Amino acid sequence: MEGETVPAARTAANKATRIALGVFVAGTVVLGTALFLVSQGLIKFHPKQQYCLTSECIEAAAAILSKINQSVDPCDNFYRFACDGWIYNNPIPEDMSNYGVYPWLRHNVDLKLKALLEKPISKRHDSEAVQKAKILYTSCMNENKIEKADVKPLLSILRHSPFRWPVLESNIGPEGLWSERKFSLEQTLATLRGQYSNSVFIRLYVAADDKISNRYILKLDQASLSLSSREDYLENTTEAKSYRDTFLQFMVDTAVLLGANASRAESDMKSVLKLEVKIAEIMIPYENRTSELMYNKMNISELSAMIPQFDWLGYIKKVIDTRLYPELKDIGPSENVIVRVPQYFKDLFRILENERKKTLANYLVWRMVYSRLFNLSRRFQYRWLEFSRVIHGTTSLLPQWDKCVDLVESALPYVVGKMFVKAHFQEDKKEMMEELTEGIRWAFIDMLEKENDWMDSETKRKAYEKAKAVMAKVGYPQFIMNDTYINEDIKTLKFTESDYFGNVLQTRKYAAQSDFYWLRKEVPKTEWFTSPTTVNAFYSASTNQIRFPAGELQKPFFWGTEYPRSLSYGAIGVIVGHEFTHGFDSNGRKYDKNGNLDPWWTTGSELKFKEKTKCMINQYSNYYWKRAGLHVNGKRTLAENIADNGGLREAFRAYRRWIREKRGGEEEPLLPGLDFTHNQLFFLSYAHVRCNSFRSESAREQIHIGAHSPPIFRVIGAMSNFEEFRKAFSCPANTSMNRGPESCRLW
Ligand SMILES: [Zn+2]
Predict the structure, then answer these.
(1) 551 and which of 430, 502, 535, 634 could share a cystine (Cβ 3.0–4.6 Å)?
(2) What was the pLDDT predicted at 287?
(3) Residue 631 contacts residue 622 (beta carbons within 8 Å)
(4) Ligand 1 geometric centre to CA of 648 (Å)
């Protein structure tokens, strides 16, 4: 792939050469400028450096050219310099509230899954599980049938306890009439959670015990509300008020569509909204949800003594289906649970005991109705779209196929995952991921040893041990290849092509019960349970793992070995570094190399760490995001900002080592038509991962509920702190991309 060697005569190769020549002619002016810059010493030009003219290099050069806007000064706003071209050419689709390179790749994965799921069933070649996935997809695509069924499947739920809906009175028949005497909060909450996987007020789930990370335990947390952010309920801004008004009208109209009387619906739903506002007030905000504060281990009888208004044991026993898990029949008052938000639960039951039962029932059933609306006929979804217009700014519904792919993917992640991996994942990607993860590990440790001047030697040694122990998981978990295991795992699911709504309910029940499977088992610390089609990467504190599913390992994040390494180190390399650094961010640092929440820092080093985070909190809090009309919350986004900054430094260092060790210090051949060095391409490649535009509604939501800074500041923030960036682009002091001595750094 080096130099100007043109591949032997093949039609495709010849075509590539013609394109290359075209790019070359067009690039003459650019090259002229480059030569001038080189003569001025602004670009370092290795005399031996040549151009790479393979079709891969030409493809990469074209992809980069199409994204950038060279009329923007990279030292003024590198995000706009890198992304303006892409953003201009990729307006946000009507059915989305934001759009960028990540969502674009997500969409490409969806298209591939669509093609796989639409292939006719082959009784001979498709496993039982694959047949189920295709049947579920087909049932979802049968829109005539869904239209014909209209509201019937939902009404049949609303006619029976515990989902009789007070607001409907007897308008759906006398059997649907709600009775206060028969209402049970505990039963309704338990059915929502245990049969429909809907967590309302309380979120009950199984996860690793933070302090004994090889054991599973029950955890209790606060649940989400109908609207995505607490601020939507609490603020008195014009936006928040209009969200609440629109939301109220949406609830009222939905109730009316289901048979309620309009004025009755109006007054009932007003009470429901008031109740949700009260719940929003007592929810623990993200910044105060620290690992130590949320670790409150007690047994159920202690919990019941603390909050006596609710039958906790009765609730938990009703949620878990012991026909599926007979070993869980022994759950009793001595069962341990981790209560993540004790104050929230105390406040919650104080509110609930003073609330009218009718309002409670109206609210709980509303949440059930709300999550099933998308499985009804078009008129319900169009009513939702009116609501979404205001809340998300979207003006059209997701195409049915996209909705159906999402359904199958979330219901059967490992089945769909295997289909995807078999068709689209190249095993040799694992090799380069090994090179990248080991490079990042080396870089983190090298900087810890040579550049970290604030940590004492004792804490450094522990950090070193933790860095050594980080385990990388790449592509897909091995167990998905085992058909017997997968068929067994989903044996209770029996889909039919003609019953979409019934199929969905089965998937909800399956999802609701699946985590209880683990309760009495040991945590398989070397396994991972991430869906392979996920276009994202993760760090898991309890297993000290970094995870990169197949969906993430694609262009423009992961470039193969035929492309310049600068592109991969800048994109997936920084992502690897980002996940790695999560083990040492403001929260991850509290977990030790074995994944236990166990303080391993000396007081001195911890104080210095906290002192240094202040710089980053201030830096990001000062960023004003025009699209949202709000400032970034530096405290809320701290952990992610630490990961971004660390990841960028580690990947750059790892790239330079690769050049040193694998190429004897010689730079990679340049890309045609671009006058960028590979150090510059590294930074461009990172920024390109982040190109994303937002509708103002979505921007506002991102600030309120997002853990990450907005993409523009993920680029500007980390790069302006990094001396290698300013060197690469020769950014003078006092430009916004060069924070100079003001730069913040943790790792
Ligand atoms: Zn992250």
Answers:
(1) 535
(2) 85
(3) yes
(4) 13
Is residue 680 within a helix (H) or strand (E), and if so which, with residue range? helix 678-690
Q: Which residues of 314-334 are buried (b: 16+ CB within 10 A; e: fewer)?
A: ebbbbbbeeeebeebeebeee
How many CB atoms are located within 10 Å of the residue 701 CB?
A: 22
Distance 262 CA to ligand 1 centre (A): 46
Whole-angstrom Cα distance, residue 704 to residue 645? 22
Fold exhibited by the domain 426-470+554-742: Collagenase (Catalytic Domain) (3.40.390)
Alpha-carbon span 637 to 644, nearest angstrom? 11
The number of helices, as runs of H, and strands, as runs of E, in the chain is: 31, 11
- Indicate the length of the chain as a whole number: 747
Q: Residue 24: its pLDDT value, please? A: 44
CA atoms within 13 A on the CB side of 329: 5
The answer to whether 680 and 567 are in contact (CB under 8 A) is: no
CA distance 647 to 626: 27
The string of pLDDT tens digits covering residues 479-495 is: 999 999 999 999 999 99
Q: Which CATH architecture is the domain 183-376 placed in? A: Orthogonal Bundle (1.10)
Residue 429: CA count within 13 A, CB half-sphere: 23
β-sheet bridge partners, residue 51: 670
d(CA 299, CA 303): 6
| 185 Cβ contact list (under 8 Å, min separation 6) | 310, 352, 357, 360, 364
Ligand 1 centroid distance, CA of 500 (Å): 36
Using a 10 angstrom Cβ sphere, with 0-12 exposed, 13-18 middle and 19 or more buried, the burial of residue 160 is exposed
CATH 1.10.1380.10 domain range(s) in the chain? 183-376
Query: Which residue, chain included where needed, has tokens 């004792």?
Result: 458
Pick from 622, 617, 623: which is nearest to 645 by CA? 617
Active site residues: 579, 644
pLDDT at 552 over 60: yes
Distance (Å) from CA 551 to ligand 1 centroid:
17
What is the rounded distance in angstroms from the CA atom of residue 669 to the CA atom of residue 540?
37
Determine phi and psi for 17, rounding to 5 degrees: -65, -40
Q: Which of 39-43, 102-106, 108-112, 586-590 has the lowest mean pLDDT?
A: 39-43
- Please give the distance, rounded to the nearest whole angstrom, from the Cα atom of residue 642 to the centre of ligand 1: 9
Mapped onto helix, strand or coil, the DSSP state of residue 557 is coil
397 Cα: distance to centroid of ligand 1 (angstroms) = 30
* Cα separation, 228 vs 271, whole angstroms: 19
Pairing mode, if any, of strands 336-339 and 98-100? unpaired
